Every structure is written in structure tokens, then in C-alpha cells.
Amino acid sequence: MAIAKRKFTFYKHMMTGVSYMIPVVAMGGLLISIGTMLGGVSVIDSPESFAGIVYFAGKTAMALVVPVLTAFIAYSIADRPGIAPGLLLGTMAVANGTGFLGGIIAGYFIGYVSLFIKKKLRVPSAMEPLVPVLIIPLLSGIIGALFMSYIIAPPISAATAAMITMFKEMGTSSKFLFGAILGALPGVDMAGPIGKIFTTVATGMMAEGIFEPNGAKVCCCMVPPLALGISSTFMSKKKYTKNEKEAGKPALILGLCQVTEGGLPFLLANPLRVFPATAIGCSVTGGIAMVFGVTAPVTMGGIFALPVMGNPIGAVIAVTAGVIVAVALLAILRKDVEEEEVVKEEELKMDISIKVE
Predict the structure, then answer these.
(1) Is residue 178 one of the residues assigned to a domain?
(2) pLDDT value of position 295
(3) Residue 353 pLDDT more than 50?
(4) Is the dihedral of CA 279, 280, 285, 288 positive or negative?
(5) Separation of alpha carbons 174 and 178, rounded Å
(6) In a domain, 351, yes or no
């Protein structure tokens, strides 16, 4: 129980950081997209034009992603005293090349350092108002700066650089495998805790200037509700209950808008006959999107993100392929509602007879 609680707490701190980081990513990605649409590929050479200002504002926002993530992981652990040193270490992570991974490690480290100082430090009552706003941030900042410079930066910056180089040099088969493995995750729990792993990886690589994993993620998160909506509304209606059929039409709309949670009513009602189909469908989508080089500077949007995505036709093909696979598997895995009810009645009779005996 204690181990499970610690795992949940660790995850909670990470998700706090990610939740505050996502609006920054969304803002930065949209600004970059708008600037690029207005100024074209040469916008980088016109920093004083309107398009250039918008574009470079987006680039500046993207530079804030890691500091915000680090700061709010620390905030989740130590409350307000963790924010300032978290911002410092996150900015150092960007500067020294440790990036997203360095920012996560720094967030946990500085959060627990700040919490330790907060609990153990004793000062005269007259100085107590200064503790959360000055003393803890100052001490944590010094400790954290030394930790980043001498312990974290050398190995993590090397590992981050190697990871980016490896990704850029991936062949077609490797990219398909990368996208297929991560792509399956949103289909397992409809972008719940397991699916958020893909979000974390994709967002982290966006901070390093790599947008393909995020493009694959945007495509994959559309597949489960679309597949379940099509299956329950048009293709395999006999395999769904009345309530599931009613959930099918909203699921179609939610899928187009990339709200993966639209598939939750189906998953919760019959998980073993749903998640294998949606996970495999998402896996197909993720692999194809990576091979086609689909990119996305925004984390959400579904079909509304297509105008700012790289290779939107490839995105449509990837989503369509994944949905077709998922719908076909749902037709195989799901049983007719009447058959399921007969099986349940037989199981119930068997249980009763055993109890009577």
C-alpha cells in the first residue's frame, strides 16, 4: 500500500508540472504556426515583420516549456517556495543542454530540497515572513545550481544529445516501430495515465525542436473514439447495448476533436473487448504517422489542427488506417449483445446451482 501511494505521489507531481506546461506548449506552438503561415518559410529572416514577431514570440514561449515544467513539479512537492528555484533550474536545463529530462530530474530534486529546508529551518519569529519568499528560494537555488552544474549536466546533456541524434538518424522501419509502440498507449486507457506517457515523451521532444512524435500523438488520440463511434453507430450495431449506441454519436464528434476520453464509456463497460482493438488501431496510426513525417506544433485540436500540421494528408491517411483496423478488430472481438446476455444467464445459473449444492 505504501509503495503504491508513493508511486501515485510521484506521478501526481509529474502531472502537475505537465498540466501547467501544456498551455505554454499550446500557446507557443500556435504562435509559431501562425507566424509561419503568415510569413512563409522565410519568416525566420524577417524578425521585425508582424509574422516574424509572432513567430519569434512562439519560439520564446517554447523556451519556457522546461522552466515551467520544472517549477511546477517543485511547486507540487514544496508549494510556493519551490517555484523560484524550479524556474532557475529549468532555465539552466535549457541552457546546458539537459533539456526536458534534466528539467524533470531538477524539478523533483529542487522540490524535495525546498521541502526539507521548509520543514527543518528554524529562524527568529521576525524573519519568518522571509522564509518562503527569500530564504528557501535562495538556499535551494544555490544547492540546485551546484547540483545541475556538477552532477546532472554532464551525463544528461550527453544522453539528450545522443537521443536527438539517434531520432534524427532513424530509418523508416525504426520510425514505424517507435511510433507503433508509443502510439498504442492512448488506446489502452483512452489517454489516461498510460496514454499520458506518450504525451510526456512527445511534449518533451517538442521542447527539443522535434515535432514528429507530437504529430503522431495527435493522430493516435483521435482513433479510439472515432473507431468506437463508427463501430457502434454504423458497422456492428448488434454488438452494443442501447447505452453504448447512444454514446457512439458523441464519440464521433469527440474523436474528430481529439478528445480520446470519448471512448471511455465503451472501455469501462467491456474493457477486454475494447482496448486490444483500440490499442492496435492506435499503434498502426502512430507507425504510419511517423513514417509519413507528420508533425504538429500544437498538442490538441484533432481535425482543427490539420491546417498547422506538417503533411496533413499523411495525418488523414494514418488516422483512417488506424480507425479501419480498430473497427475490424472490434467486429471480431465483440460479441452480439444477445449472446453475451445468454452467457451471463448461464454463468448465473451455474453459480446458483453450486451454492444450492
Answers:
(1) yes
(2) 93
(3) no
(4) positive
(5) 6
(6) no
Torsion over CA of 170, 173, 179 and 185, rounded to 10 degrees? -130
Q: What is the pTM of this model?
A: 0.67
Residues in the chain: 357
Which domain covers residue 303, as residue numbers?
A: 172-343
Count of domains observed in the chain: 2
Does residue 244 share a domain with residue 307? yes
How many Å is the maximal CA-CA distance in the chain? 86
- Give me the amino acid identity at 71: A
The domain boundary, picked from 101, 132, 165, lies at 165
Taken in order 39, 43, 49, 53, the sign of the CA dihedral is: positive
DSSP code string of 141-167: HHHHHHHIIIIIHHHHHHHHHHHHHHH
Q: What φ, ψ does residue 64 adopt, rounded to 5°?
A: -90, -10
Task: Judge if 204 and 136 occupy the same domain.
Answer: no
More confident of the two residues 19 and 224? 224
**At 6, is the pLDDT very low, low, confident or very high (cuts 50, 70, 90)?**
low
Residues of 310-338 as b/e, b for ≥16 C-beta within 10 angstroms? ebbebbebbbebbbebbbbbbeebbeebe
Give the pLDDT score at 58.
Answer: 85
